[in-house]
Write a structure and sequence with these properties.
845 residues, Jelly Rolls, TIM Barrel, 13 helices, 47 strands, globular
Length: 845
C-alpha cells in the first residue's frame, strides 16, 4: 500500500513558486546608483548561488575554498485584483543565510538561520491588480565548518487562502493507538481567521489509502474568532492498517477541507501508521520488532549541484544509501530538507533530524551562535513542525559536539532544548551528538599544549582515535556529561564507542546510539552493538562524501613529515564518504555491507601502487588508497597490495589461474586481509572458503587497449518538471565494458532539447575544475552529468572527448507523475574506440 506519487500533489491554496527568478551578487544601493550593478542571471529554484563562484586558494579548507558573499534574488509576479481580502503568504523551506525578504521594496520578513523554514505574510505589501516584485537577500561569511552553499537552495511556496484557512503547519496527524485490527489516526487541524468577524465553518477530514480510496472520515463544526486560532481534533478509525516500516513503507494521506457553503481551504499530508518503543531490554522497536540502526551521517550538499535541494537529488541519495545497506540517516548538522524527508517516507529510511552544530559557544567566527539566544525556540519549532507528519523521523538531535554539554550551568541548555522539542512532539525520542572530548574541550586544550614539544597538534591528530578513546572512557567525562545525557531519551555519542560497555555498567538505564563514528572502527563497534540491546546502532562519518572540510579523510603517510590534518588548495572534498559525490560506492561501503551481514561475496580493493611500502598514519576517517580495479598505469612487475573483504574463513587470490596467496579473513580478522603481489595485466580472482569449502568468488579484469565512452542515464523517463533530474553516468570502458580507470580524459557534455546541464563532476578530491561548466576530467574513469528538464520532450545528451570519443543517451521528459513506467534508457556510441591515453598530463590528485 505504498503511495509513490512524487512530488506530493499540492492543495489548491499552495503552489510552488520556483520559476522566474534571477540572481546576482548583492551590492549597496549607493553602488547601484552608479549604474555598475552586476547583471542578474535567470535561475530556477532550488538554486545554490555559491557553487559557481571561483574558489579562493587563500580561503578556508572548511568551505572547500569557496568564498563568502552576498546574493540578491528577484522575481516579478502578477497579483490579481481578486486576491484583495485573501490571505497571501510565501513559505521558504530554506535560505542560506540571514534572509531578508522585500515585497515591492518594502521589508516583509527576516530569518537568521540558513536551515529553518519560515513564512512571510504578504498581504500588507502587495499591489493588487498589478505586477509585484519580491527580493530576497542572503549571505554567507565564515559561518560554517563545511560547505554550506548560499541562496534560496530549497523550495518556495505561494499560498493564497481565504481569511478563514488552515494555518501553516496546521495539519498534524498522529497514530496513538495501533494494532493489527484497528489504528486511530488523530487529526489535529489549526484553523485561523484573518477576517474581522467570527466565522463558523465545518472541518471535514478524510483518510485515503494508496489507491485513493477513503478509509475513514469525520466532520466537525468550529467557530473561529478573529486573531484566535482554533484547533479541531478528530479521531478517525482505520481498519486493518498497513503499517509503515523500513521494509514496507506504506503511506496514507490525510485530506482536510474547511468549508461553509463553499469550499474555503484544502490541506493534505502523507503519514504513516507505525509504533515506536524504547527500552534497555529490546532496544528500539518499530511495530514491535527490534531494529538496529545501520546509520549514515550526511551533509546537506548534493555534490555536483552544490547545496540545491532539488527533490530528485535528495531522493536519489536516499535510494543509493539504502541500496548500500543503510537503514537510517542522520542529518548532520542541520535540519533535513522536506524533499529528503518525503523520499525517506516513500523509500523506507529512518531519520535522525538534527537541530544545529552550535548553541551559544561559537565554532566559527560568524556562525549560528550569534543568533542562538534570540532564535533557538522558533528554530526548534520550525524543525519539529516540519517533521511531525513524517513516519521516517524517529529521533530529534538537539545538537552536535556542543561544548556546553560538559558544564553544569551551560548544560541547562540541554534541558531547555529537549523539553521544547517534547512540548511540540512527544511521540519521538530526543538525543544529542555528544563528543566526550569536546565536552571537556578545555582539559583537552591543556593536554594539547603540554604535548606541543613532542610533535604538536598534527602529531596529536594522527593518534586521534586513541586519544579520543582515552578521553571518552575517562571518569572526567562520566562526571562532566552526566546531567546533559540524563536529559535525553537516547544518549548520542560521537567517537565515544569506548564508553559503550563502560556506560552499560555505570548507567544501566542508559540507552545509547553512536551518533557519529569512525568508518575504520565499524567491525569492532558493530560486534558490540549486535550483542547489547541498549546500543541502538551506528552512524558512520560519513555515508556520502561532501564539499568542504577538505581533505579530512585523505590518507596521510609517515614519510610526509608532519602533514596538516586538512588538505591545502585545491583540495575540495572531505574524502570520507562510503559513497562519493557522483553516487559511486567506495571500498569502505562494501566492507561495511559485509560487516552488517548483508553481503557474502568477497570484495577486492587494490591499493594504489605508489602507496606500496609506505606506512599510512592512523586516522579517524581515512580509508586506504584503494580501488576495485586491475588497471594501473605502472610497469608490469610493480609491487602492489591487494585487500580482500569477506566474512568467510579464508581467501585465496588467483591471477590468471595461478594462486598468488592465501590469507585468513572473517570476523576474527576484522573481515579483511592483505596480500602482497606484483601487478601484471590479466584477471584477478578472490575465492572465499568457509570450513574448507568454496562459498563465493569475485574478480577484476584488466581492460584491453581499446577505450570507449559509455553514457547511461539513471532513468529513461523523467518528469517534465525542474523538480526532477536525470543523472547521466559517463564511463571509460573497453570493448567488453570493462572499466578503464587509469586513463582519464576530459569530457565535454552537450544537452539538446528541453533541459539544461545542471552540474558536471567527478569524484576527484583535489581539483580546480568547476562543477558548473560543460567540460570536466574523469576520475578513475568516471564522471556524472546532472540534467534538469525545462519542459516536456526528447532530451539528447552527447558526450565527447578531446581524442574523438563520442557517445550519448536519450531521455524522455513527460507529464509530472512518477507513476508512469520507465521506458528504459537509450544510449549510443558514434565513435567505437580510441587508444589508451597517457595519464601523465592529467590533473594531480
Amino acid at each position: 500500500m505504498v503511495i509513490a506519487a512524487h512530488p506530493t500533489p499540492s492543495p489548491e491554496s499552495r503552489t510552488l513558486f520556483n520559476d522566474g527568478w534571477t540572481v546576482r551578487p548583492k551590492v549597496s544601493v549607493f553602488f547601484e546608483l552608479g549604474g555598475a550593478a552586476p547583471e542578474p542571471q535567470p535561475v530556477t529554484l532550488p538554486h545554490d548561488a555559491a557553487i559557481g563562484e571561483p574558489r579562493d586558494p587563500a580561503g578556508s579548507h572548511d568551505t572547500g575554498y569557496f568564498p563568502g558573499g552576498a546574493f540578491q534574488y528577484e522575481k516579478t509576479f502578477e497579483v490579481p485584483a481578486d486576491w484583495a481580502g485573501k490571505h497571501v503568504g510565501l513559505e521558504f523551506e530554506g535560505v542560506y543565510r540571514d534572509a531578508m525578504v522585500y515585497i515591492n521594496n518594502r521589508f516583509a520578513g527576516h530569518r537568521a538561520s540558513g536551515y529553518a523554514a519560515f513564512r512571510v505574510v504578504a498581504d500588507d505589501f502587495l499591489d493588487y491588480g498589478a505586477t509585484n516584485t519580491i527580493r530576497v537577500e542572503c549571505r554567507l561569511h565564515q559561518d560554517a565548518r563545511w560547505y554550506s552553499g548560499a541562496g534560496i537552495y530549497r523550495d518556495v511556496w505561494l499560498t493564497v487562502q481565504e481569511p478563514v484557512h488552515v494555518a501553516a503547519d496546521g495539519l498534524v496527524v498522529s497514530t496513538p493507538d495501533v494494532d493489527d485490527e484497528l489504528a486511530i489516526a488523530a487529526v489535529a487541524t489549526t484553523v485561523e481567521n484573518a477576517g474581522t468577524r467570527p466565522r463558523t465553518v465545518r472541518v471535514d477530514a478524510r483518510i485515503e489509502d494508496a489507491d485513493g480510496a477513503v478509509v475513514a472520515r469525520a466532520t466537525t463544526p468550529v467557530t473561529v474568532l478573529p486573531g484566535e486560532p482554533a484547533v479541531v481534533r478528530q479521531r478517525l478509525a482505520v481498519d486493518r492498517p498497513q503499517r509503515w516500516s523500513v521494509d514496507t513503507p506504506n503511506l496514507y494521506r490525510a485530506v482536510v477541507t474547511v468549508a461553509d457553503d463553499d469550499r474555503i481551504d484544502v490541506r493534505s499530508t502523507l503519514f504513516g501508521i507505525r509504533t515506536l518503543q524504547l527500552d534497555t531490554r529490546y532496544g528500539l522497536r518499530i511495530n514491535g520488532e527490534p531494529v538496529k540502526l545501520r546509520g549514515a551521517c550526511i551533509h546537506h550538499d548534493n555534490g555536483p549541484i552544490g547545496a540545491a535541494a532539488i527533490p530528485r537529488a535528495e531522493e536519489r541519495r536516499v535510494e543509493l544509501l539504502k541500496a548500500a545497506g543503510f537503514n537510517a540517516i542522520r542529518s548532520a548538522h542541520n535540519p533535513i530538507s522536506p524533499a529528503m524527508l518525503d523520499a525517506c517516507d516513500r523509500l523506507g529510511m529512518l531519520v535522525m533530524d538534527e537541530f544545529s552544530d552550535v548553541w551559544a559557544e561559537a565554532k566559527t567566527s560568524f556562525d549560528y551562535s550569534i543568533d542562538f539566544a534570540e532564535w533557538w525556540q522558533r528554530d526548534v519549532e520550525a524543525m519539529v513542525r516540519k517533521d511531525i507528519n513524517h513516519p521516517s523521523v524517529i529521533l530529534y538531535s538537539i545538537g552536535n559536539e556542543i561544548p556546553e554539554t560538559g558544564d553544569p550551568i551551560s548544560s541547562v541548555w540541554s534541558r531547555r532544548l529537549a523539553e521544547h522539542v517534547r512540548a511540540i512532539d512527544s511521540s519521538r525520542y530526543v538525543t544529542n551528538g555528544v563528543n566526550p572530548m569536546v565536552s571537556v574541550i578545555r582539559h583537552f586544550a591543556a593536554m594539547t599544549s603540554q604535548q606541543g614539544s613532542e610533535g604538536g597538534v598534527n602529531a596529536l591528530m594522527s593518534e586521534m582515535n586513541d586519544i579520543m578513546g582515552q578521553i571518552s572512557a575517562s571518569e572526567l567525562v562520566a562526571e562532566a556529561t552526566e546531567e546533559s545525557l540524563a536529559v535525553l531519551d537516547v544518549t548520542g555519542l560521537n567517537y565515544g564507542d569506548r564508553r559503550y560497555l563502560l556506560d552499560h555498567e555505570l548507567f544501566p538505564n542508559r540507552i545509547t546510539v553512536g551518533t557519529e563514528t569512525s568508518p575504520v572502527r565499524i567491525a569492532e563497534n558493530w560486534a558490540v552493538i549486535s550483542e547489547h540491546a541498549n546500543l541502538l546502532g551506528d552512524f558512520t562519518w560519513t555515508g556520502w562524501d561532501y564539499l568542504g572540510e577538505a581533505g579530512l579523510g585523505r590518507a596521510l603517510y609517515a614519510d610526509e613529515g608532519t602533514p596538516l590534518l586538512m588538505g591545502e588548495y585545491p583540495w575540495l572534498l572531505a574524502r570520507c564518504g562510503d559513497i562519493d559525490i557522483t553516487g559511486r560506492r567506495r571500498p569502505p561501503s562494501y566492507y561495511r555491507e559485509i560487516v552488517f551481514g548483508l553481503r557474502h561475496e568477497p570484495y577486492i580493493a587494490v591499493r594504489r601502487p605508489d602507496t606500496h611500502g609506505r606506512s599510512q598514519m592512523p586516522g579517524v576517517w581515512a580509508w586506504s588508497e584503494s580501488l576495485a580495479s586491475w588497471d594501473w598505469d605502472v610497469a608490469e612487475g610493480t609491487p602492489i597490495t591487494v585487500e580482500v573483504y569477506s566474512d568467510a574463513d579464508e581467501i585465496e587470490l588467483i591471477l590468471d589461474g595461478e594462486s598468488i596467496g592465501r590469507a585468513a579473513v572473517g570476523s576474527r580478522n576484522g573481515f579483511r586481509c592483505e596480500i602482497d603481489t606484483v601487478f601484471r595485466r590479466g584477471e584477478l580472482v578472490a575465492i572465499a572458503y568457509t570450513d574448507g569449502r568454496e562459498t563465493a568468488r569475485t574478480g577484476l579484469r584488466s581492460p584491453s587497449d581499446e577505450v570507449r565512452l559509455e553514457v547511461v542515464a539513471d532513468r529513461g523517463t523523467i518528469d517534465a518538471s525542474p523538480s526532477d533530474l536525470a543523472y547521466v553516468d559517463i564511463d571509460l570502458v573497453d570493448a567488453d565494458g570493462v572499466p578503464v580507470t587509469a586513463s582519464d580524459r576530459r569530457v565535454v557534455v552537450l544537452v539538446a532539447g528541453p533541459a539544461v546541464l545542471q552540474g558536471l563532476a567527478s569524484a576527484r578530491p583535489a581539483t580546480e575544475e568547476s562543477f558548473t561548466g560543460s567540460s570536466h576530467t574523469t576520475y578513475e574513469g568516471h564522471a556524472v552529468a546532472v540534467v534538469r528538464p525545462t519542459g516536456a520532450g526528447r532530451i539528447v545528451v552527447t558526450v565527447r572527448t578531446d581524442d574523438g570519443l563520442e557517445a550519448g543517451t536519450e531521455i524522455h521528459a513527460g507529464t509530472p507523475s512518477h507513476t508512469a513506467p520507465d521506458k528504459g534508457v537509450t544510449s549510443w556510441r558514434k565513435t567505437p574506440h580510441a587508444p589508451r591515453a597517457s595519464s601523465s598530463a592529467l590533473p594531480s590528485r
